[in-house]
Amino acid sequence: MGDGLNKEIIVSVTPRETRIAVVEDGQLMELRVEREERVVGSIYKGIVQNVLPGMDAAFVDIGLERNAFLYVADILPEEDSNGDSPASIKRSELRRRQIKDLLRPGQEIMVQVIKGPRGTKGARVSSRVALPGRYVVLMPTGNHVGVSRKIDGRDERDRLKRIGDKIRPKGFGLVMRTECEGRTERDLKADTQFLVHTWKKIEENARRIKAPACIYRDQTLLYRTVRDMLGDEINRMVIDDPDEFEKVHMIMEMVMPAMRGRIQLYDGETPIFDHYGIERDLEKLLKQ
Question: What is the chain's Cα-based Rg?
C-alpha cells in the first residue's frame, strides 16, 4: 500500500436498495446507490411470439410486461457445418438473411437485453451474448480475440493479444478490456475462468428453467464494486446483509482468495451507515 490510506467499502443492503460507501481515512469519498433489478445485460430464455418480415424483426416473450424486440442483425446465424463461426460471417451475408427463415412463432431462444424497456417500448434483445468481467469480456458465440481500442501502445496491444490467444477457451471469443493494461496473464486467466464458470451455470439454467424466464441477472452494483474496486488497496469491506456477504465471499473465493479475510459481516444493533458515521457525512453534504 503505497499511499498508506486506510480505504474501506461499507455496504448497506435493504430490500429496496443497496448503498455502497467508499471511505478513505474515515472520510466519505463516494456513494453508489442501486434501486432496481438490472434488466440490461441480463439473459433470458424467451419464446418467439410473432415474426414481422416487413420490419425484419421478431417479438419475443421474455417474461417482462412487454415483449422484447429482436432485430434480424442481432440473431446469431446457425453454425455452419464447415466450422465458420458466426463471428466471421460477412455483413453482406447478414443483410441477405430474412427473419422468417430464422425464427418461427413458439420457438425458444436465449437472448440478452441490450436496451432496457422505455415507455411503451419493450426491451431490445440480441442472441449474441457477452459476459463482462473485470478485465475481459467473454463471448460464448465468438471465436476471436479483440483488444479495447482505448489501449494505444502497440507493444501492450501485442502483449494482450498474445495472452488472449493463449487463454481464450476453445469455442469462445474474448475481448481484452481497457482495464487489462499492465495486468499479468494470471489475473486475466482467473477472470476468464470465472466467466466460463458463470456461462456454464447459465447453460445449466437454460436447460432447467421453463421459458419465458430470466436465467442470468446482470451483476448487481455490489458485485461490480467487488469486481472493479477490490484490489490490494482496499483494507476491508463491511457488509450488513448475511446473504450478500455469502455471495461476495463466494466471488472472492474464485477470483481473489487472498483477499477473503478483508470481507467482514456487520451485525451490530445500530444501522451500519450510522455506526460508521456515513449518514452524518451525507447530511453534511446535503446541507452544503
Answer: 22
> Once rounded to an integer, what is the mean pLDDT over residues 147-152?
94
State the average pLDDT over residues 146-165.
Answer: 95
DSSP designation for 119 = T
- What gap in Å lies between CA 137 and CA 268, rounded to an integer? 39
Q: Is residue 215 within 8 Å of residue 110, measured between CB atoms?
A: yes
pLDDT tens, residue by residue, 246-260 = 988 887 887 778 888
- Give 40's contacts (C-beta < 8 A, 6+ positions apart): 113, 114, 115, 116, 123, 218
Percent of the chain with pLDDT over 70: 90
- The string of DSSP codes covering 1-67 is --S---EEEEEEE-SS-EEEEEEETTEEEEEEEE-S---TT-EEEEEEEEEEGGGTEEEEE-SSSS-
For the record, the C-alpha cell of 125 comes out as 434483445
Residue with cell 461476495: 248
Residues 6+ away with beta carbon under 8 Å from 49: 58, 59, 60, 61, 67, 105
Can you read off the three cell numbers belonging to residue 95? 443483410
1, pLDDT greater than 50: no
- pLDDT tens-digit profile of 39-92? 889 999 999 999 999 999 999 999 999 999 999 999 976 543 333 444 445 555
Strands (E) in 188-227, as ranges, are 213-216
213: CB partners within 8 A, 6+ apart: 44, 45, 62, 63
Taking Cα atoms as reference points, which of 204, 167, 248 lies closest to residue 43?
204
Residues with Cβ within 8 Å of 211's Cβ and at least 6 positions away in sequence, in order, are 45, 46, 47, 61, 63, 108
